[in-house]
Specification:
about 475 residues, alpha+beta, five-stranded antiparallel beta sheet, about 25% strand
Length: about 475
């Protein structure tokens, strides 16, 4: 089998997947139909779990240096914002950073890892064989073919790869139009500003470079008709109608509309074709979670593809990609729909519902924590089969020490026995790190996957030694 993966799409998802594959010793070619990076930045927010993913490859610092940290997020633009400072994460905040800059940093990371990124090359189809896939590409010099072991569709909601694979993409059509404007504000409101009332909903978010993003919906935007492109005059009028002020807006960098069409791929894998990011899930960008979930898709997929191609994967590992990430997509689309319902609740009854929900968030810390963990993806677990499985299996592991030890090409065994008995069992795809007993309850050893989730755990020292010997290679 050719140790080569073709990736359609050089957005954040495709770039992260390419880097993961190369760090694990698998060649990746990224094909992007755009000749230049899109400087418009719909995705603005990096969530805690994504920052943990970046930290697991030791590349988080440039993002932290340039991004604007915000202490929380929102759920449906409710008056009571979610407090992320309560989250159990090395990064208990969201980070505002334009997608264009995020892509630039991720492209440099992928290139440093060795990935080949070709712009102006468009995947048009493929032919699948028993041991490979032939990808057809339109490039600057004409049509050509690439042979690969697998094809990954990271090419957005209109994915050519998904369509060519015949993977269903069921869901609902757009009924609401959101809008955004990246503009200069001479009189910006205080950070965290939002408005909600009968005239609509509005959020103002500071961005690097002296730009602010205004996002919102008004009752007139609950429509299936396309009113044309957003203008600065319309953005100003909508903002004044809600707040009485345009905040001195000028010099728009980007104005855009977008709908709430919500779709989820029926399969994230079909034979030698896999989907990640918007190619697998489309939704209203409530809370800025879409790019984050896509990067986390790629984090789940990359090491599994590499382990499969290198022959050190447990049986059926690649099939677990759909089994683990499709439920995350279900949660994503359901949460997005719920937030759209709250963001368009302009009636007196809707305002009462929002007021009650806001009160509950502000007075029930456990509700704040539940929603904040869900929005930030810190609650994602991959439950194992079997009622007698160790409770740590599938959970996320974080913390600076363990994040710094993570690698794309190996499991990490955390030895919690008193005498560091497992240290001699390290192998090419198994690293061993000793910590004092009690760090993970009664566990004597835990095996952490390259994506930071627990693959196996035991409370018995003998079982840990037997398992480590099986994985040492």
């Amino acid at each position: 089998m050719d140790n080569h993966v073709v990736i359609a799409g050089a957005g954040p998802v495709g770039l992260w997947l390419a880097a993961e594959l190369h760090l694990a010793g698998v060649r990746a070619t990224v094909l992007e139909q755009r000749t230049e990076r899109d400087e418009r930045s719909r995705a603005l927010t990096l969530h805690p779990r994504t920052l943990e993913v970046l930290a697991s490859r030791r590349i988080q610092q440039p993002f932290l240096d340039e991004g604007v940290p915000l202490p929380g997020g929102h759920f449906g633009v409710l008056d009571s914002r979610l407090d992320f400072r309560r989250l159990n994460s090395t990064f208990p905040y969201t980070l505002a950073l334009p997608q264009a800059r995020t892509e630039e940093l991720l492209e440099a990371h992928a290139a440093d890892a060795g990935a080949r990124i070709l712009r102006g090359h468009r995947v048009t189809g493929f032919t699948e064989h028993p041991e490979s896939v032939t990808v057809t590409v339109d490039g600057p010099d004409g049509r050509y073919e690439l042979e690969a072991a697998y094809l990954a569709g990271c090419d957005g909601a209109r994915s050519i790869v998904r369509t060519a694979a015949g993977i269903d993409y069921p869901g609902t059509a757009s009924t609401v139009l959101g809008w955004l404007g990246d503009v200069v504000l001479d009189r910006p409101p205080a950070p965290g500003f939002s408005y909600f009332g009968p005239q609509g909903t509005l959020m103002v978010v500071p961005m690097p470079g002296g730009i602010h993003r205004l996002v919102g919906i008004t009752p007139d935007d609950i429509t299936t008709d396309w009113p044309g492109d957003l203008t600065l005059a319309e953005l100003r009028a909508k903002t004044i109608a809600m707040t009485g002020d345009d905040f001195g807006m000028r010099d728009p960098a980007w104005l855009s509309r977008y709908g709430n069409a919500t779709r989820l791929a029926a399969a994230y894998r079909k034979g030698r074709v896999l989907l990640a990011g918007d190619a697998a899930h489309q939704h209203f960008p409530a809370g800025g979670v879409g790019m984050n979930v896509g990067i986390q898709d790629a984090a789940n997929l990359g090491w599994k593809l590499a382990a499969t191609l290198h022959g050190w994967a447990p049986a059926g590992l690649l099939d677990t990609y759909h089994a683990e990430r499709h439920p995350v997509g279900v949660s994503l689309t359901e949460t997005s729909r719920a937030q759209v319902a709250l963001m368009t609740a302009f009636s007196p009854q809707g305002l009462s519902l929002r007021g009650l929900f806001s009160e509950l968030i502000s007075t029930l810390p456990q509700l704040n924590d539940r929603l904040a963990n869900r929005v930030s993806a810190l609650d994602v677990t991959y439950p194992p089969a079997g009622a007698d499985a160790h409770p740590l299996i599938g959970t996320r592991v974080s913390g600076p020490e363990l994040l710094a030890l993570s690698r794309a090409d190996a499991y990490l065994m955390v030895d919690l026995t008193p005498g560091a008995e497992l240290s001699a069992l390290a192998g090419s795809h198994l690293r061993v790190h000793h910590r004092e007993p009690g760090a993970f309850g009664d566990a004597t050893a835990i095996l952490i996957r390259p994506d930071g989730h627990v693959a196996w755990a035991t409370d018995e020292a003998d079982a840990a030694i037997r398992f480590a010997k099986e994985y040492a290679g």
